[in-house]
Structure formats: structure tokens, C-alpha cells
Write a structure and sequence with these properties.
Layout: H1 6-24, E1 31-32, E2 45-49, E3 62-63, E4 67-68, H2 71-79, E5 84-86, H3 96-112, E6 120-125, H4 127-139, E7 145-149, H5 155-158, E8 165-173, H6 182-186, E9 190-199, H7 213-224
Parallel strand pairs: 1-5, 2-5, 2-6, 6-7, 7-8, 8-9
Antiparallel strand pairs: 3-4
């Protein structure tokens, strides 16, 4: 039988790689601003939900006390890792419950095409964190990952029906009025793992308006950690 030359083998490998890439659609580290047309079941997907001030059409709104919310810079920082980031820009006057339903449906869409629940993370800041908590509660999946940043406030007592499940990370700023998520975890009996980090930048709620290493790096490590 004639031997196959190394050049032919290399060609076959290249063709196979190209076909796999075409089927996969998106490489790890891709940023999506809409739900991806093609999903790779072997990759991780993270949904980032921004704060209330970004709702509308301006991606860099300025708060009189906390400064500029740099949504593009945050997206860039979070997508420079080993997962795919889905970061929607919510329209003005978004209904939190309706948007939580959308996130929950998107998670189901990923799972339907083969993405393991353990490779999906819901990440939210401020109102985006409340929406994230609502979506996580609706899903009630023991393998889902949820990250809340400066998200836990008075709404927790007003919404005792919201209960998280799965693996949870909370990050809050000590100078901010939004503090620990422990009360939420206290009545979320399906939480399998809870980690909370307190940062102290002195920037209050604005600590999360830009991609500061003090919160970005723990988020990236937690998402990338083996589960």
C-alpha cells in the first residue's frame, strides 16, 4: 500500500480543522451583543447584564456622582478570556421580569444544543444583578453559575420568592450601600457553593463602572475554575 505523504496528511488535518471551526461558529473569547447564531457545545458562555444607567442607547453614560460607566471597556475586559461573552445592551425602561425571562430562555437554548449547564454563567451588576438573580431563580438549576456584583439591596426582602441555585459568587464594595448577599443565600437552599468577596476602592457604586482589576480578575478566575 503506498504511503501517504506528510503534505497530504497536513492537508487533511487542515480541512478537518476548518470544518470543525465552521461547525463551532465562535471561538472561545468571542464577544456577542446578540444571541449567537452558532453555538459550540464544548465552550463556556457568560451573560453579562449591565447596570440601570446603561439602559437606552448610550454605552458610556455619565453619573453625576460615580462617573462614566464604560460599558465597551467592561465588555472588552470580560471577553479577553477563555469563554464567550454575551452582553446585551438593554433598551430604556426595560421590564426586569421580562428580561429575566429572556435570559432564562437563552440559557435553555444553549442547553438544548448541548452546552452543559456547568459551562453557563449569569453575571450581573446592580439592576443587572437583580435581573440575573431573577433569571437564576427561574431556572433553578443546580449546575448553573451565578455572579452578583453590588446587587443585593432592599429588593431581597421585597422578593422572598427569588431563590438562587447552584454555584454563586458575590462581589460588593464596602463603601457602597449595596452589601452582602448573605440574606439572599440564607433562603436559597438549592445553592451548592457560595463565595463572597468584599472590595474596598472607596468608589461606592462606581467601583463597577469601569473594569477594575480588583473585581475583573476574581470574576475571570471564578468562571474559569474547574467545576
Amino acid at each position: 500500500m503506498p504511503s501517504i505523504g506528510t503534505g497530504v496528511i497536513a492537508l487533511f488535518l487542515a480541512i478537518g480543522f476548518a470544518m470543525t471551526a465552521n461547525i463551532a461558529g465562535a471561538r472561545a473569547g468571542t464577544l456577542f451583543t446578540a444571541f449567537p447564531d452558532l453555538i459550540n457545545p464544548g465552550e463556556k458562555y457568560v451573560f453579562y447584564s449591565h447596570g440601570f444607567i446603561v439602559e437606552g442607547t448610550n454605552e458610556t453614560p455619565v453619573h453625576p456622582r460615580f462617573g462614566t460607566y464604560d460599558f465597551p471597556a467592561i465588555k472588552a475586559a470580560l471577553s479577553a478570556s477563555d469563554f464567550n461573552l454575551i452582553a446585551y445592551h438593554r433598551p430604556a425602561s426595560t421590564d426586569p421580569g421580562a428580561w429575566a425571562d429572556k435570559l432564562a430562555m437563552d440559557v435553555h437554548a444553549l442547553i438544548t444544543v448541548g452546552v452543559p449547564t456547568r459551562n453557563i454563567t449569569l453575571l450581573g451588576f446592580s439592576r443587572g444583578g437583580m435581573i440575573t438573580a431573577m433569571a437564576s431563580s427561574k431556572l433553578a438549576m443546580p449546575d448553573l453559575n451565578t455572579i452578583l456584583m453590588a446587587s443585593c439591596g432592599g429588593w431581597i426582602n421585597a422578593r422572598p420568592d427569588i431563590r438562587l441555585a447552584g454555584r454563586v459568587l458575590s462581589i460588593y464594595e464596602t463603601s457602597d450601600r449595596f452589601g452582602t448577599c448573605q440574606p439572599l443565600i440564607g433562603h436559597s437552599k438549592a445553592v451548592t457553593s457560595f463565595t463572597e468577596i468584599a472590595i474596598s476602592t472607596g468608589k461606592e457604586h462606581g467601583a463597577f463602572f469601569t473594569p477594575r482589576k480588583v473585581w475583573v480578575e476574581p470574576v475571570l478566575r471564578w468562571i474559569s475554575a474547574e467545576k
